[in-house]
Every structure is written in structure tokens, then in C-alpha cells.
Amino acid sequence: MQIVDTNIVAYLLIDGHQTGAAQALRARDSDWRSEAFLLIEFTNVLASSVANRRMTLPLARDFLASATALFDGKLERLQHYLVLEAAARYRVSAYDARFLALAEQLGRRLVTEDVRLRRAAPALTQSLDEALASA
């Protein structure tokens, strides 16, 4: 099981410089989990891409459908007090704290390319390269 941040899903589904690494992680372990907020963040990534004319709305809908299917039954909804406690403990936003609190709850490290988040909670996080090297 891998706990992944929104940016890892974006790398998997939207072709870019980290797509190959995200695909390799998915091929190694297809049981990806995350916090339910992931779909909200991913929708925002897509909306920004459409607004900036980096992708069409139909393509963004396809990516959103793919992300939704990828996490069918695998998104956790954490209690807000757990998120608040994690945000205070790691000094991160409540948005980022959702992913850290899930990592704590499941006893796994969050795979993220968010350097600031990895610095805030190094014991709970790992980069995509670190996740690939650890298997």
C-alpha cells in the first residue's frame, strides 16, 4: 500500500517529467490510498490547467474520471480534530495536514514531491525517488 499526495497522482495521469517514476511506483504497488481531499486538490489542478489553456475541459474531465476510478473505495475521511492536531504539530496547512494525519493513522509514509511538506515531517514522508528505491 502506498499513501500518495495529489502531486503524485498528477504526475501519474498528466504526462510530464515525473510520469515515468509515478508509473513505476504504481506498477510496483497498485494499492494507492489517500485522504478524500485529494480529489478536491486534483480538481483544482485541472481547473487551473484549463484556465491557463494548458488542457481542454474534456481532457480535464477525463483526468478527473481516471483519478476518481483510481481511488474508488480507497479514500479516507479523517476526523477534523486529527487534521487540526497534525497541522499544529507539523506547522503546515490543514490541507497538507490531512495527508500527514493519514500517514500517521495508517503507519505508512506519504509519497510526495512537496519539498516543504517533506521538510516539515521527514519521518512521515518520502519523495517519489525514495519510494522507488525502498522497495
- Report how far the terminal alpha carbons are from each other: 11 Å
Report the CATH C-level class: Alpha Beta
Number of beta strands: 5
The fold-level CATH name is: Rossmann fold
In CATH terms, the superfamily is 5'-nuclease
How many individual helices?
A: 8
Model regions low in confidence, pLDDT < 50 over at least 5 residues: none
Shape: globular
Biggest pleated-sheet summary: 5 strands, parallel
Note the beta-strand portion. Answer: 5-15%
Major sheet: arrangement of strands:
3-2-1-4-5
CATH architecture assignment name: 3-Layer(aba) Sandwich
Mean pLDDT: 96
What is the CA-based Rg, rounded? 14 Å
Helix content: 55-70%
The H/E string reads: EHHEHHEHHEHEH
Overall domain count: 1
- Derived from helix and strand composition plus strand pairing, the structural class reads alpha/beta
